[in-house]
């Protein structure tokens, strides 16, 4: 599965590279492809969160850290539709890329942590986290190539370092809580990515209204 | 003290006041926020469920707090969405932001807070049902189908890509209860095939955002599919007509070929077929024609013959001088189809003609006409059977069955001999074959007798009248004689053909009565003269031959006379009717006639002296 994903991502990159080189493939198709990937990404994260919640002690809710404490919260993203529709395509793409970039390291940490997560569904969680990692990487790589088509503004990426530390706390509850918190942050960010890409897709496919 | 009493009274008052009221007011029960929904990811609404009101008018208030700030806001709109609801308009809605919402129920006695709920608007999207669902019936190569088309809910902004909707439609017949669901993806149009003609269909559509909840089903659209049964019917009519046509053709063909089919399925049972034998004639009872036909085809002629004529009193057996002559004659006889005619005239001077009265008994023949008839019939079929030369017209009355066999001879390799034999056989074998008749006695030499007929025997029915046994024609006569000679000699020649040869060569040979069958037929068999008991090689018919019929005595004994020397007569002589002596067949007198008299035959066997075969009337004629 991992190899398939890497192959898929490689293929995607190749395709995008070719696009960059020859511009034979229309942007709308590429964006369509990208939005499909982001859709998968978000679905995975939703499933993962639900798996975690199934066994997460309700009382843990109280001590759940607030989402505003996500490491990506400093990134200013539109908070409603009007704002989102006013953002230029390059900026939107830049936002997407920044988000994707910001999650590369935390996902690695999550993946590591998932191997020893004290959770009944640890196996499936671990697998899904692995998939998330691959998807994120492939999408990021593809969009890196695609951004060349959108001008210089798309090239800038905001740096959003993760400072959570490699070792998520020792005790079980803390680890679970942190894991859950990170997952919820990722779920939201993946939704943002998906939404932005779909807006971009719709904008690029003026001649194909059925895509929107 | 007073204070205590006052406090006590106050306390009692406080306690009993609620009871005095009877209903019991209490602060309101805890309300619960049961759901919040956003139809287009721009606004959202929350509904709560009030708890018990505690008997007092209760008011509700919703307070919310966004995650980014600590400010608590109250619901801006309690009415738009109905009772116990709070509507957040676009300005108050932020996405990708957690809302912490709490509902408070308040009455006169107090207020109760609900549990707080955290929501993110993007996760609670449930669009409105699709709008303007239209269903029309279109035709695809004369087969109808439904085309369903719709619009997304007007609030959902799919054009900008802000919200992406996927659709689902479901169809069912009016009278059915199960829906048929189809996933339509993002398209706004769908075709439904495989419709039942004349049915009414119900169609509904719903939608869902990419990461949200399904909407409610749209209102039902009814559509009636027109009848296209008549089109189907016409096809069926065509098919019926076509198959009826084919059926008719098949029936006609069958009728045409019924005969051949009958032959195929029920082939006729082959019956015995005799060349030249016409069943119809037989059925008609015209035996003459029947047998004449047989005669024509090389069968011994069986025209009406006089049995009496056939009988000869004695058989005159002559030994031709030259074998060649005999051979020739034989050949002639052999080749030709001799008709059976019994002519009374006996041109044969006595060379064993059929007409010789000494050969056969008249009585024999007469009496045995019936038998002969049957014999004749039998004869054809029983090749190996004894042929009693029985010719009605012929002088020689030999049983029909007498004549058949001389198979040995036929199988003789030597042509001449065989021919000789043939001739003899013919002569012998033809019951119909009139020995007296001139020509064609000898029919088919090989007819039926080619095969190794074990014993060659021939029966004579001796009759008083001894018509010429031999055919009148000289040739025939000679041949007949030859035949008789040969036959005689060959009679009882059960040996290998080799043995036959020599005797065949010999003109004069023994005739030995082999047996008498029940029909009073004398079975003669040739005797190898000169052969001893043990070692008679049949090949050497020593000089004994008799083919001379001496006469028939009163007892209907055919007396044969030996022509030549008798030195080598076979010492072993005894009659064996079935004499299976190795090589030696002795002659024996044969008294024919009946079975009862068969015994006497044997007794009289020794009649003949010197190894003669006294072929007395062996056979048959007992009953005449």
Automatic annotation (TrEMBL), chain B:
Does this entry carry the keyword Methyltransferase?
no
- What PROSITE patterns does its record include? FN3, HEMATOPO_REC_L_F1
Q: Where is this region: Disordered?
A: 365-396
Q: Where in the cell is it found?
A: Membrane
Membrane-crossing ranges are 235-254
GO function term, MF aspect, one: cytokine binding
Q: What CDD domains does the record point to?
A: FN3
Query: What membrane topology is annotated for this entry?
Result: Single-pass type I membrane protein
Q: Which keywords label this protein?
A: Disulfide bond, Glycoprotein, Membrane, Metal-binding, Receptor, Repeat, Signal, Transmembrane, Transmembrane helix, Zinc
Q: Which residue intervals define the domain Fibronectin type-III in the entry?
A: 27-128, 129-228
Give one Pfam hit by family name: EpoR_lig-bind
GO CC terms for this protein?
Answer: external side of plasma membrane; receptor complex
Record remark: domains: The WSXWS motif appears to be necessary for proper protein folding and thereby efficient intracellular transport and cell-surface receptor binding.
Q: Which family, according to the similarity comment?
A: Belongs to the type I cytokine receptor family. Type 1 subfamily.
Protein name in the entry:
Prolactin receptor
**Gene source species:** Dicentrarchus labrax
């Amino acid at each position: 599965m991992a190899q398939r994903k890497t192959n898929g991502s490689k293929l995607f990159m190749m395709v995008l590279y070719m696009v960059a080189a020859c511009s034979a493939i229309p942007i709308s198709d590429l964006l369509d492809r990208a939005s499909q990937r982001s859709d998968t990404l978000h679905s995975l994260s939703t499933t993962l969160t639900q798996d975690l919640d199934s066994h997460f002690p309700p009382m843990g809710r109280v001590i759940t850290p607030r989402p505003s404490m996500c490491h990506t919260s400093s990134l200013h993203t539109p908070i409603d539709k009007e704002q989102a529709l006013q953002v230029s395509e390059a900026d939107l793409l830049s936002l997407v890329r920044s988000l994707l970039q910001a999650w590369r390291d935390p996902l690695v940490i999550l993946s590591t942590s998932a191997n020893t997560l004290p959770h009944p569904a640890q196996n499936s969680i671990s697998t899904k986290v692995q998939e998330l990692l691959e998807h994120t990487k492939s999408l990021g790589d593809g969009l890196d190539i695609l951004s060349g088509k959108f001008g210089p503004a798309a090239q800038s990426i905001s740096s959003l370092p993760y400072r959570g530390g490699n070792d998520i706390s020792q005790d079980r509850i803390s680890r679970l809580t942190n894991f859950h918190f990170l997952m919820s942050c990722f779920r939201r960010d993946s939704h943002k990515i998906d939404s932005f890409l779909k807006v971009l897709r719709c904008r690029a496919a003026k001649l194909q209204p059925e895509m929107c | 003290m007073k204070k205590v009493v006052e406090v006590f009274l106050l306390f009692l008052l406080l306690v009993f006041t609620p009871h005095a009221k009877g209903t019991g007011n209490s602060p309101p029960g805890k309300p619960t926020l049961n759901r919040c929904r956003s139809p287009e990811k721009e606004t959202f609404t929350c509904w709560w469920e009030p708890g018990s009101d505690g008997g007092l008018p209760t008011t509700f208030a919703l307070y919310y707090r966004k995650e980014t700030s600590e400010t608590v806001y109250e619901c801006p709109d309690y009415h738009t969405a109905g009772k116990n609801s709070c509507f957040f308009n676009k300005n108050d809605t932020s996405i990708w932001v957690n809302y912490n919402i709490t509902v408070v129920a308040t009455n006169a006695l107090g207020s109760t807070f609900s549990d707080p709920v955290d929501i993110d608007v993007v996760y609670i999207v449930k669009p409105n049902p699709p709008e303007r669902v239209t269903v029309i019936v279109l035709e695809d190569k004369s087969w109808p189908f439904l085309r369903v088309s719709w619009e997304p809910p007007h609030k959902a902004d799919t054009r900008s890509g802000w919200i992406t909707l996927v659709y689902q439609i479901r169809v069912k017949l009016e009278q059915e209860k199960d829906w048929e669901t189809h996933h339509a993806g993002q398209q706004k149009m769908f075709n439904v095939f495989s419709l039942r003609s004349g049915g009414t269909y119900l169609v509904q559509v719903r939608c869902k955002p990419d990461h949200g909840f399904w909407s409610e089903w749209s209102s039902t659209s009814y559509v009636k599919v027109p009848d296209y049964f008549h089109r189907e019917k016409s096809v069926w009519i065509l098919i019926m007509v076509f198959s009826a046509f084919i059926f008719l053709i098949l029936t006609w063909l069958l009728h045409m070929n019924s005969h051949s089919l009958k032959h195929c399925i029920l082939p006729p049972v082959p019956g015995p077929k005799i060349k030249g034998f016409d069943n119809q004639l037989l059925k008609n009872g015209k035996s003459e024609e029947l047998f004449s036909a047989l005669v024509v085809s090389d069968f011994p002629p069986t025209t009406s013959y006089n049995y009496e004529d056939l009988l000869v009193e004695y058989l005159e057996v002559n030994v031709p001088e030259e074998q060649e002559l005999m051979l020739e004659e034989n050949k002639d006889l052999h080749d030709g189809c001799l008709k059976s005619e019994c002519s009374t005239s006996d041109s044969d001077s006595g060379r064993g003609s059929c007409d010789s009265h000494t050969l056969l008994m008249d009585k024999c023949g007469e009496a045995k006409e019936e038998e002969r008839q049957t014999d004749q019939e039998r004869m054809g079929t029983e090749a190996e059977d004894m042929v009693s030369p029985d010719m009605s017209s012929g002088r020689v009355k030999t049983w029909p069955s007498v004549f058949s066999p001389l198979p040995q001879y036929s199988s003789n390799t030597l042509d001449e001999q065989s021919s000789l034999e043939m001739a003899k056989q013919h002569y012998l074998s033809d019951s119909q074959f009139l020995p007296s008749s001139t020509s064609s006695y000898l029919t088919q030499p090989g007819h039926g007798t080619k095969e190794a007929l074990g014993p060659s025997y021939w029966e004579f029915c001796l009759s008083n009248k001894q018509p010429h046994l031999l055919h009148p024609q000289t040739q025939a006569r000679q041949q007949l004689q030859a035949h008789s000679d040969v036959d005689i000699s060959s009679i009882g020649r059960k040996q290998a053909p080799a043995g036959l040869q020599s005797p065949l060569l010999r003109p004069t040979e023994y005739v030995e009565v082999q047996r008498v069958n029940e029909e009073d037929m004398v079975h003669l068999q040739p005797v190898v003269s000169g052969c001893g008991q043990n070692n008679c090689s049949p090949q050497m018919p020593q000089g004994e031959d008799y083919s001379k019929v001496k006469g028939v005595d009163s007892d209907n004994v055919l007396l044969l006379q030996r022509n030549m020397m008798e030195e080598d007569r076979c010492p072993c002589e005894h009659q064996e009717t079935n004499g299976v002596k190795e090589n030696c067949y002795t002659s024996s007198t044969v008294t024919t006639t009946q079975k009862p008299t068969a015994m006497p035959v044997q007794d009289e066997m020794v009649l003949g002296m010197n190894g003669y075969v006294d072929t007395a009337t062996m056979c048959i004629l007992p009953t005449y």
